[in-house]
Amino acid sequence: MRTHHHLMNVLIFLLIGFLWGLNWPAVKFLLTEIKPLSIRAISFTAAAFVLGIATILLKQPLRLKKDEAAATAIVGVFLIAGFNVLTAFGQLFLEASKAAIIAYTMPTLTAILATIFLRERLEKNVVLALVIAMFGLGILASEDLDLLIKNPIGSVIMLFAALCWAIGNVAMKSKRWSLKPLPLTAWFFAFSSLVTWPLALIWEPLWKQNWPSSHVLATLAYHVLGPMVICYILWSVLVSRLPATVAAVSALTAPVVGVLSSALLLGETLSWQKGIALAAILFSIALTTIIPKRKQTNSASCDQSSSTTDRRAQENADI
Questions:
Q1: What is the pTM of this model?
Q2: Domain ranges within the chain, ordered by starting residue
């Protein structure tokens, strides 16, 4: 029975990674008819509403303490709004597969920032992960080096998106939260929508945009219900009672699915440069998530508890 439950948990996390990975070509497709800020404003609002309802149905406290409001807003702006808005703009200039590979430098960037701002010990695996990730990005850049030199904006935007995710996670790890992951994530989306809507109404007025086609609307529904609602509900319910090594499965699955689904659904080329870059990024993620957590599972029980909390903070994000 225990083995069966463990298998089910792994399958659920694989589903989460699949849905998050498939979100990359989905957003690329949405951008053909909907502006990037509009996509995020709509999806943030819908996700906040549905996650709030799910919190109430699960009988978890939703009320946000006044002394946590500012910190929650800051984390939400970086972790949700900053990351998702920038990845949407980045895909205007990049293939979805390339965007996914660059974006998943975020676990390594998080580990680096944690050593600087949280005074966590700089482990050898983190340094090695950074070197490997940079090697992967260098290989990826070599695919269209002339084009990258002439127009680097897409890659730069995606790196800033990964940095936003890392900053949000470090800020999240620096504070002990009173709310559980699900209601806290609902508040992250709520604050993100408050920031994004004014920008969308100023630069992308909905009344000046054409009504999307049925295929785009269906993809938008998937984007909200799948990656932003179902994934976060499953994640918040399961991550609190599972080993960090199991939780890391979704982080490894998402970029693989993102690259492969972009090739299948959007016709993007699977070059050897992308293959090597993807492998390098996956290895860097493993070095900064799975490997060190396995070492911690052999330590005292108090270390195991803090490891689960850190992992929950590090992985509690979108794309």
A1: 0.84
A2: 2-315
